[in-house]
């Protein structure tokens, strides 16, 4: 097998492709000092992977029946790891039992949901530094846990962020396990994955990319972005809501110091004095002070007015799909500058849907307020008979008046979406999954999957009991 030297890998890492709405660059910056040591040595590669008799890696033709995500018969073409045992294959294809208890793995926080990105996609973060020792962690159980976790979100567009720093000889999975995992995550996981951010890549990441390259279609390859420094994520994600692990932050600073680099001022998250017409990344109080229509922002009114149309309400997957990243940015800027936006002319209902979710997510304080977060998290554990009374107390007594007005306005519209769920497939449960993390999040702690479940439960309760909570 031809394994490229670290010098070659480092040279390749400095080549940057153009990043646009339809194609991703290999890196978001054109310089990086890769770590000299690989987490895996060459002997493991040689022992695990057989060299294909014929190398045909120049072009990857997609099957007429393929969605362009991955080749259906790549294993046969490559002959890679063809000697996997039946037991290994069974692990990769094993059905996930809903009753399986993953609490022993979930407690490490290896996988976390952190809300939506700038384009309305759910963001899932995987942190290598939180992987426990191989003596503690069963990697086959980890694989089932990863699949169980992703199964909750792969029906919608989503993004993955992988913090690579912290993978070492004590917690690294075997290369054969990586291959099994790659096979296990089939088409349904790859189809709606819109971006894969590999943060702080080392030579090992590049080596694995080359190893798996024949099995990956060009289309899927465009979804992969190498992120050399944390500040590069800011143009695509709500960076301050990522709750990046402290070891990753410290490692990033060391890389910046080593290269005598500073965080580019143009990419800083520091928010300067907003325009009077500002709609995004401001508070409801600011909007009310600068808007004749009260606390309901013009962007929210225009989005809902456009979406509240029978033909659009029947759009399948409304609020579940992302939209053109360039268009979303352009529309946001137009609203912030007080310019007119014609959603009819744009012609894509998903643009207005993403803009509405983004507006809610970028409020300086969530619509349901930081103060209510602890009560909302514990709401799921209440007795069924108590829930309505507690919800009334939270919404009618403790939620500020402006927030109540905006929340009621939003939910009145979402009820109309639910009324057409037979066509748009957006039930109260599906809408709760989409909107829950955009209505409430913690001010100080990272969202866990347990807290996200509680948030979604409360959001669904509001939708299911709208008449009892908002029409008194």
TrEMBL record:
<dbReference type="Pfam" id="PF13716">
    <property type="entry name" value="CRAL_TRIO_2"/>
</dbReference>
<protein>
    <recommendedName>
        <fullName>Rho-GAP domain-containing protein</fullName>
    </recommendedName>
</protein>
<feature type="compositionally biased region" description="Acidic residues">
    <location>
        <begin position="36"/>
        <end position="47"/>
    </location>
</feature>
<dbReference type="GO" id="GO:0007264">
    <property type="term" value="P:small GTPase-mediated signal transduction"/>
</dbReference>
<feature type="domain" description="CRAL-TRIO">
    <location>
        <begin position="101"/>
        <end position="256"/>
    </location>
</feature>
<feature type="region of interest" description="Disordered">
    <location>
        <begin position="1"/>
        <end position="63"/>
    </location>
</feature>
<feature type="domain" description="Rho-GAP">
    <location>
        <begin position="282"/>
        <end position="470"/>
    </location>
</feature>
<dbReference type="InterPro" id="IPR001251">
    <property type="entry name" value="CRAL-TRIO_dom"/>
</dbReference>
<dbReference type="Pfam" id="PF00620">
    <property type="entry name" value="RhoGAP"/>
</dbReference>
<dbReference type="InterPro" id="IPR008936">
    <property type="entry name" value="Rho_GTPase_activation_prot"/>
</dbReference>
<dbReference type="GO" id="GO:0005737">
    <property type="term" value="C:cytoplasm"/>
</dbReference>
<feature type="compositionally biased region" description="Basic and acidic residues">
    <location>
        <begin position="1"/>
        <end position="21"/>
    </location>
</feature>
<dbReference type="InterPro" id="IPR036865">
    <property type="entry name" value="CRAL-TRIO_dom_sf"/>
</dbReference>
<dbReference type="GO" id="GO:2001136">
    <property type="term" value="P:negative regulation of endocytic recycling"/>
</dbReference>
<dbReference type="GO" id="GO:0005096">
    <property type="term" value="F:GTPase activator activity"/>
</dbReference>
<dbReference type="InterPro" id="IPR000198">
    <property type="entry name" value="RhoGAP_dom"/>
</dbReference>
């Amino acid at each position: 097998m031809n394994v490229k030297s670290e010098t070659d890998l480092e040279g390749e890492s400095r080549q940057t492709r153009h990043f646009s709405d339809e194609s991703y660059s290999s890196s978001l910056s054109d310089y990086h000092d890769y770590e000299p040591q690989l987490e895996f040595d060459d002997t493991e590669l040689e022992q695990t992977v057989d060299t294909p008799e014929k190398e045909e890696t120049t072009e990857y033709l997609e099957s007429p029946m393929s969605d362009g995500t991955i080749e259906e018969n790549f294993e046969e073409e490559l002959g890679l790891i063809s000697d996997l045992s039946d037991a290994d294959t069974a692990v990769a294809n094993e059905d996930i039992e809903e009753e399986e208890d993953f609490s022993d793995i979930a407690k490490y926080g290896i996988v976390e949901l952190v809300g939506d990105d700038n384009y309305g996609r759910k963001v899932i973060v995987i942190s290598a530094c939180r992987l426990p020792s191989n003596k503690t962690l069963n990697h086959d159980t980890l694989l089932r846990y990863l699949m169980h976790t992703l199964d909750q979100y792969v029906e919608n567009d989503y993004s993955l962020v992988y913090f690579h720093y912290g993978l070492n000889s004590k917690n690294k999975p075997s290369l054969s396990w990586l291959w099994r995992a790659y096979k296990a995550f089939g088409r349904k996981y790859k189809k709606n994955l819109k971006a894969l951010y590999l943060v702080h890549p080392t030579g090992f990441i590049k080596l694995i990319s080359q190893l798996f390259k024949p099995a990956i279609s060009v289309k899927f390859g465009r979804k992969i972005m190498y992120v050399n420094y944390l500040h590069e994520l800011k143009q695509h994600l709500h960076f301050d809501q990522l709750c990046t692990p402290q070891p990753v932050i410290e490692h990033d600073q060391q890389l910046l110091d080593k290269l005598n680099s500073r965080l580019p001022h143009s990419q800083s998250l520091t928010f300067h004095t907003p325009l009077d017409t500002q709609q995004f990344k401001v508070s409801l109080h600011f909007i009310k002070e600068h808007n004749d229509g009260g606390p309901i922002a013009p962007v929210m009114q225009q989005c809902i007015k456009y979406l509240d149309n029978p033909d659009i309400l029947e759009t399948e997957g409304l609020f579940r799909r992302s939209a053109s990243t360039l268009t979303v940015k352009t529309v946001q800027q137009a609203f912030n500058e007080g310019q007119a936006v014609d959603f009819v002319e744009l012609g894509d209902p998903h643009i207005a849907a993403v803009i509405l979710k983004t507006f809610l997510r970028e409020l300086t304080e969530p619509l349901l307020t930081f103060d209510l977060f602890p009560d909302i998290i514990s709401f799921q554990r209440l007795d069924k008979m108590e829930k309505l009374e507690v919800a009334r107390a939270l919404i009618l007594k403790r939620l500020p008046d402006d927030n109540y007005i905006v929340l009621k306005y939003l939910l009145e519209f979402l009820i109309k979406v639910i009324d057409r769920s037979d066509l748009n497939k957006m039930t109260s449960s599906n809408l709760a999954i989409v909107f829950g993390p955009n209505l409430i999040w913690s001010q100080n702690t990272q969202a866990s999957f347990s807290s996200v479940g509680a948030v979604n439960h409360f959001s669904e309760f509001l939708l299911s009991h709208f008449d009892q909570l908002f029409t008194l």
